[in-house]
Amino acid sequence: MNSPQISWQILLSFRANIFRAICLFSLLSLSACQKRTNAYIPSADMTLYQQNHWSVKARVAIKTPEESVSATLDWKKQAADFDFHIYGMFGATYAHLTQQQHQATLKLPEDQVFYHQDAEQLLYQALGWDFPIDALSYWIKGLPSGKSGEMISRDENENLSKVSFNQWTVTFSRYQDYAGYQMPRMIKANHPQLSLKVVVKDWEFLPPTK
């Protein structure tokens, strides 16, 4: 009789299939855990993400291979529109970038004015800077931008401590309470083209515009 042999073949095949299924399940579970870890957002951050109308004033230090500048930053954001103004003593403008609907405008010293539909493309064309201003609008609140390729680290209090994104390395420190939210007072961003240090002076959350 060959039935015992057939039974053993069936049993061995069954065990092999079970083993493959367990391995596949383990890999899928591990992958899912990794994705949840990377996408994890503390509950305290959820309402801060929804705050999309705000104004911040800060001191900034900008360093490029050619020069170093200390200045004041006034940044007002209303949903997708914003006004990003860096100026020195007596209000002298270093850079004034605005985005309104589908029109970005960059004003520089000596009455230079540039236009483009996209603010980041405008900065790259006018200054040669790969400057992720959209991501920075999240980082300045101590939030990940959620952009593809962004790697984040958090401290023991679940506050964002470090971000790596497109050759940018950003660190966050001195978290303080602003209008009930824990946000960083100091942000340092480094890139091969330039470095940026931001020290926040004041936050204000604004009502949505009609």
What's the total number of strands?
Answer: 11
User: Mean of the pLDDT scores?
Assistant: 82
Enumerate the spans where pLDDT stays under 50 for 5 or more consecutive residues.
1-8, 21-38
Radius of gyration: 25 Å
* Fraction in helix: 25-40%
Structure write-up:
The chain contains four helices and eleven strands; from the N terminus they run H-H-E-E-E-E-E-E-H-H-E-E-E-E-E. It has 210 residues and is of the alpha+beta class. The radius of gyration is 25 Å and the shape is globular. Strands 6-5-4-3-2-1-11-10-9-8-7 form an eleven-stranded antiparallel β-sheet, covered by helices on one side. The longest helix is centred in the N-terminal third of the chain and has 37 residues. Strand 2 and strand 3 form a beta hairpin. It is 29% helix and 43% strand. The chain has two domains: 37 residues; 161 residues, outer membrane lipoprotein receptor (LolB), chain A.
